[in-house]
Design goal:
Elements lengths: L7 H16 L4 H12 L5 E2 H8 L3 H13 L3 E6 L2 E8 L4 H13 L1 H11 L5 H37 L1
Antiparallel strand pairs: 1-3, 2-3
Helix pairs in contact: 1-2, 2-4, 5-7, 6-7
Amino acid sequence: MTNVALTEEQRELIERMGVFYEQHGVPPMEGRIMSLLVVCDEPELTFDQIRELLGISKSTTSSALNMLQLTQRVIYKTKPGDRKRYFTSNIAQWQEGFAENFQKFFGVIKIMKEALNQRTTITTEFNKQMAEFIEFIEYLSIEFPKLYMDWLNRNTNNKNN
């Protein structure tokens, strides 16, 4: 039995966050585990603690944790003299993941331009909307790095004061 407890409010928040993740393409149990790891007062949880707190089977817990580790959303730590793995959110690496996801998103520009060039000229309204989308993504690809650098500089300045 785990010595970690959740309040009813934490349980409800985990469920709401899990549904949010699910609506954005994350499988249900992976979303619940990610939510648990950011809502729980304990920064690290063992396999059994995760399983017990969420009331899920060993196989479900194992499958979800394996996928979360593959996608680098969850990492684990070990402690000297303890064979258990302690799982934690990989939120500390949010900047790398954020930048990587934006790069993937910006990568759509080239292929969308190709698609637009191959489209028939008959569908002028659709082509116009597609060109506008491409223009917006190009704009973001230029402005996003500037915003990110501004934020980094502001954040660094705030830490130095």
